[in-house]
Amino acid sequence: RGVLPEASLRSMEEQLSGACTLEIAAFDEFTKLLGQPNATEAYDHVIFDTAPTGHTLRLLSLPSAWTGFFAKNTSGNSCLGPLAGLQQQREMYERSVASLADGAQTTLVLVSRAQRGALREAQRTSKELAALGVRNQRLILNGVFHASFADATAHALEQRHAEALHEMSSFLSSLPVIEVPLHAHNLVGIAALRALSESDDDAQFPKTIESSRPFDCETLESLVDQIAASRHGVIMTMGKGGVGKTTLAAAIASNLAQRGFPVHLSTTDPAAHVAVTVDPVEGLSVSRIDPVAETRSYVEHVMETSGKDLDADGRKLLKEDLRSPCTEEIAVFHAFARIVAQGQNGFVVLDTAPTGHTLLLLDATEAYHREVVKHASDMPDAVLSLLPRLRDPDFTRVIIVTLPEATPVHEAASLQEDLRRASIEPFAWVINQSFAETGTSDPLLQRRGENESRFIYEVIDEHAERVAIVPWLREEPVGAARLQKLFTPGEAVVGK
């Protein structure tokens, strides 16, 4: 500023407005704490609370990706401009890679619930981290439940945990494991966190019921009735990792297909497992946006179009530029736009990545839309129309999924504010896996259900105009038949 003309500054701001810049900025801070000793010399330990696994794996792979890019790039350019501006970071990036791989310096703690899907994800993450050189790993099993009362719900929860642990016993025996039991109280505040190390800690925490009034909620069935009335469009499930977005996306998709609509269920989550959640249903197709495959296809397309008239040296430079880690974001964005466009001819249900990665995708949408307005003839119609479609409440319905707990509710509220800043108004909230209406007589689960009330009331009173509650089900909702139990009147909450 004060050096270049205003038009040049506007152009630079436009180039730096995308998700790639945001990721590089976060990446630089991350690598500074890993690879710059004086940044952490005042501390004995540095603890990273990382994003959910898909985005974390991308973040951890970036040091290797960028150092490899530096080593092989001969053009002097990257998606962020001349490499000269990044070369000064190269040594720090290389030290970060070394720190991650040094077991004496870095310990990677995987955290999982005692659930099949969560444990499979932990196993996948463990393998991918080992491939990146991060092999000093441990696992914390959080929220493990042992029934203390002869209760059907308690027995089902204990049994489900035991079956998941038995099924994944080979993985669990491969690394050190620590179990943390399920607690009735919310783990918020110093006292609650310190109580994690005590065996009988729940009695010291008072009940948090604030009212005995009924929950003024809809059913999941009534939400889908309203969606079905439009006969086409996009449904996106969004929320914090682990709240059940995949299960609800699969349930909504299979329910719409059973009503006779053509439905495409897909995901933008790098840790996707929608295919194992839903059985084949007539009229329902299932896919996953695979970043590796999409990047390969995108690079081939650019080489065949933009590179077709270049000479050998020009094609070589273009190919090197496309090896940048930023290319993957662009490729995934194009795939996302194509899938959203399918909502014109039926229903598209998108199980989106956990919130941080989803917001990067929506931020990319905003940046791309500004750019395509200037170069409309160069862009596919799906890309041109993406942001208007996402902002159209008659075409796109965003369902925010949360658990009746402090962190998921507050992160969901933050997500809603971010969506509103992007001019996207959520269609409804779904409070998932509630113990409040299970009828359990197990003391711990009863207390847990009672402690849920304050967060259910908070969602109803402060955050959402349309809310559905889905109780914790005794049978794990996997497969079309069990998914439909989420819609059964006896299984969904209408009132307290």
Please tell me about this protein's structure.
It is built from 18 helices and 12 strands. The chain has helices spanning 6-15, 19-35, 53-72, 84-101, 116-131, 152-167, 169-172, 190-194, 220-228, 245-258, 291-305, 312-321, 326-341, 355-374, 381-391, 406-421, 443-463, 480-483; strands spanning 77-78, 81-82, 108-113, 137-144, 177-181, 233-238, 263-267, 284-286, 347-351, 396-402, 428-434, 467-471. Strands 8-7-9-6-10-11-12 form a 7-stranded parallel sheet, with helices on both faces. The chain has a 3-stranded parallel sheet with strand order 3-4-5, covered by helices on one side. A two-stranded antiparallel ribbon has the order 1-2. The longest helix is centred in the C-terminal third of the chain and has 21 residues, at 443-463.
Q: Looking across the biggest beta sheet, what order are the strands in?
A: 8-7-9-6-10-11-12
> Helix and strand succession?
HHHEEHEHEHHEHHEHEEHHHEHHEHEHEH
Structural class: alpha/beta
Low-confidence stretches: 80-84, 489-496
Q: Roughly what is the average pLDDT, rounded to an integer?
A: 81
Question: What is the β-strand count?
Answer: 12
Measured between the Cα atoms of the first and last residue, the distance is: 60 Å
The number of helical runs is 18
Rg for CA atoms: 24 Å
Strand content: 5-15%
What shape does the CA trace take?
Answer: globular
The biggest sheet, with number of strands, parallel, antiparallel or mixed sense and barrel status, is: 7 strands, parallel
* Helical content (DSSP H or I, runs of 4+): 40-55%
